[in-house]
Amino acid sequence: MFTSKTFLSTDDVMGISGQRNNGIRENWKCALICLGMAFATAQYGFDVAAIGTFQTMPGFLMTFGYRDPALKGGWGISTTDQQLIASFLNVGTIIGVFFITPFGRYFGRRHGIWMGTIVAFAGCATQIVATSVAALCVGRALMGASNAFFITFSNAYIVECTPPRLRAVCSAMFAVTINIGTILGAVVDERTSHIMGKLSYQIPLACLFIFPTLLSIFVFFIPESPRWLVLHDRHEEAEKSLIHLRGNSLEPEFLQEEFVEIIRGVEEEKSNATGSSMVDIFKGTNLRRTMLCVAVAVSRASSGVWVFLSYGTYFYQQAGVDDIFKISIYSMVVQLVGVTAGLYCAYKVWGRRTMLLIGTGSAVIAMVGPAIAAAVAPGTAQAARVFLAFNFFYVITYSGFAGSMTWPVSAEVVNSRLRVVTLSFATGVDYVFASFFWLFLPDMKGRSLEEIDELFEKQVPTRDFPTFECQSSSQAHDIALHKMEEAKVAVTQVESAT
Q1: Phi, psi at 74, each rounded to 5°
Q2: The CATH number of domain 24-222+273-440 is 1.20.1250.20
Q3: Where's it mainly located (predicted)?
């Protein structure tokens, strides 16, 4: 006959002692550490918001754009330069991904954050002193590379250090810190946008130094990931790290249980290793986990988030929305409310899968709504209001539900030994998709279908599509002129004969 002590809790049935699955109140210390680590992405939010708003600043356009009295504000910037400035952040992230895997093989998560801060300092300085689009793009690439280090190592650290019940909430803090960064970036831009000179954009860029500086100090006071330490056979340090992270949230027996579980998990992963880390992510059960990680990461680019992050302010202006800077700030505040609601739902109500389905479904609606309005009433105030309303809907539902869940899911679905490798690969794929059109899609405006066929057959580079002289059109022109001349001669001969 069973006594009351014999019955297992739901968590015990799942394989983990219920006492280890406690909440935020018991694990406040670990939650604060993870929140501090999550601020690694605040730089990313500030940077994207600031650069997106620069494209409507006269001071910025005076340096990197051109004067055009016909445009609102009297200054403009070429579409190519807009794309370069926005896309080189992604290009830099892709480049940074190639350095993350070898770096992560020998250095820990904290060292990865330190490396990110060094690259971020270089990127900030380069952008401030830049006087050409080319130099600015170099700075954008460096910022992208630092983001690659920040995103990968901070996400890996949080997932590896938090107890199971808090993993989704702590990882989803990335959505909060990114949002806080975008709000700060928009506020700073709003205060400097009226300065008619370089300081209008140099001041926001200088503010970017704040984030890597605080991070470089913060990581001095936190322990290394216990799983990474075990992976490198530093068991004594790993145990101290786990004790520091858990504090008084666990009794000694359950703390030892977690530590033993970590050791056994890492040893099993090592025994299953069959080759290099990069090859292993595509082998056996890891292939499924890699596909899930990549799919979740790529969902951020496919959701339309880059449209609102990189070009939101510009679209507000083109749609006829008044006071675009304040509207951007309001949108970000609404997004923060949505993310906060999403964190509560992740902690108390729904699982990861449900949250992702709700968020991605809402993104579809948010994209279709403005498109219909623009088709029915293009260039009208009504279309602008519809765009604004659906933007608010998007930032609440997508950012609060799907956007916040992509962080924990992408990191927890992979195993510890391959976590940094898989995350860096998924991040690279995500940013390739975000930059795909700039990198590969040529401009076919004004070209006939026959010219387009010729351009692809001759393997004309993407950037040369607008200027390449096609033989099909010139030959067709010559043939047409020849036929017209023949027709004129024939008419002349007929008239002469009559």
Answers
A1: 85, -5
A2: yes
A3: membrane
